[in-house]
Amino acid sequence: MPNAQAAPHPWAPPPVNSCGETGFHPLLRAPDPNGPPAPLIQIPEVIEIPVIWPEITPVPVPDPPQNDTRVAQPPLPADPCHNPCPDVRDSVRPEEPSTGTDPDPHPGAAPEQKPGAAPDSGSASGSAGSSGTGSGGSGSGEPVKLPRVVIKPEVEPIPIPVPGGPGPEPQPAPPPVVNPVEPGPVAKPVAARSVAEVSVVGQVTGPGSQNRTDMRWSVDGTDLGFVYESKPGEVAVVFGDTFGEGWGPGGVGTPDEDWRSNVLGFSTDRDLADGMTIDTMVQDSPCHAAEVLGSRKIKNWETTTIPTSGFALGDRQYLSYMSVNRWDRIPGLWWTNHGGLAWSDDGGRTWTKDQHAKWENLFGLGRFQVAAMVPHDDYVYMFGTPNGRIGVAGLARVAQADVANKSAYQYWVNGSWAPAAENRATPLFLGMASELSVRHDAASGQWQMTYLDSMTGAIVLRTAAEPQGVWSDAVPLVSTADYPKTYGGFIHPWSTGQDLYFLLSAWDTYNVYLMHARLNEPR
């Protein structure tokens, strides 16, 4: 069950960036005491009754080649409030918000749908914040206005493969590698660090953010936001489903709101105490972030392609990703086709999906569908969970030279590194975990892991001396009682043992925030 909370945090006006643009804040706030009273009974204006409508959908196969159209980003204006592309997006300096402004732009809003899918709330629990205005039932003698009932057809695609174009060039298969079983004992447990304080540093993406991603790169709403070191002195930040002009708060957008399955930017900002500055994003047209990993965008075939982690080996960068077949109607569940690897040799501008480095999700039993991959010493370690948010965490490793050769991976099974044992991997700890983020802290020599624990309704931190553990008990960082419908929690690689910075996603505002956790030394 989610952590209990006595009351929402005190009301505060919504944040405003240096350009006077109003942003979002993920913390649950009490209603504005100077605002109008909330109605005693909230009655929706419309009640929608969904009706499933099957539709035969031809799907040309193989997949078409990736669209690699790219344009260089000119230097951003010296004045951060200047619109770099007035012919692409109009910007009007907003008025300063009044003290009566409600910090929640969609009070009580229900989760929207993933594109072409059923609702996915993003986390195990929580509400949108302060009460909404509703319609009628205010207790002032006004007549109650009954809701209007409408039938809402929901198309359920039935994909049928049909012959398509030539598709990408075939890639040669790597030679099979059979590694022996090798010992992989756990290390002694390390003392867990306690959390002294967790706070929001700032809004990273969307309207009102310090990066003004809506005006600079047409990134109005997005989520996840994991970070990896792309080269010395630079990190890449990768986001999931992204929406542009026309998007409004309340969850994900619709396919006609400039939907891209993923986008990627770069940052050289080492001073995270005042926020995270994004310097550039990969673009396919001026002021428009490109989709770097293509997807078919067809429900029940491939709804979207979501990157899950990244790393660099020399001049080549890698992304792990999941090919999402469909989102489930039950919040927090989804079904994947496979997990896979993609690589880039041009600094992250264009990417190629490896045709052989795939972990198929046969019968929905794949254990490494959502992966977090971390290079360390001679290996790349792959921490993985099944699709959805109700699985356990497993571990694999592979020699760095063989990272794209699936047959070379060894899986941690009962204290040994075993080949070809993907679905026998031993859980690293008891309990459910989703959307893992893992970092090796060079100063302490320890490993840090964050993830969403759906059972406790919290993003938690664990620590270990070795990737296979023993992992410490989970230490809560963020509760969904305080930060409703939050998920993700991806560690910034330039964190330290005492100052843990991570990116948090909030469903209702559907944007990404930089968080700072100050950790105490273990006792």
How would you portray this structure in words?
The chain is mainly beta. The chain has one helix at residues 213-217, and strands at residues 46-61, 148-163, 182-183, 195-203, 224-231, 234-239, 263-267, 280-281, 283-285, 288-289, 304-313, 316-327, 334-344, 352-360, 370-376, 379-385, 394-399, 410-413, 416-419, 434-441, 446-453, 458-464, 475-479, 486-491, 499-506, 511-519. The strands form 7 sheets. Strands 3-19-18-17-16-15 form a 6-stranded antiparallel β-sheet, with no helix packed on it. Strands 4-26-25-24 form a 4-stranded antiparallel β-sheet, with no helix packed on it. A hairpin with a 6-residue loop joins strand 12 (316-327) and strand 13. The longest helix has 5 residues, at 213-217.
Task: Work out the helix count.
Answer: 1
**Percent helix range:** under 10%
Q: Approximately what portion of the residues adopt beta-strand conformation?
A: 35-45%
Shape: globular
Mean pLDDT: 90
Major pleated sheet: 6 strands, antiparallel
Which structural class fits the helix and strand makeup? Answer: mainly beta
Rounded Rg: 23 Å
First and last CA, distance: 29 Å
Which residues form runs of ≥5 with pLDDT under 50?
Answer: 93-113, 116-140
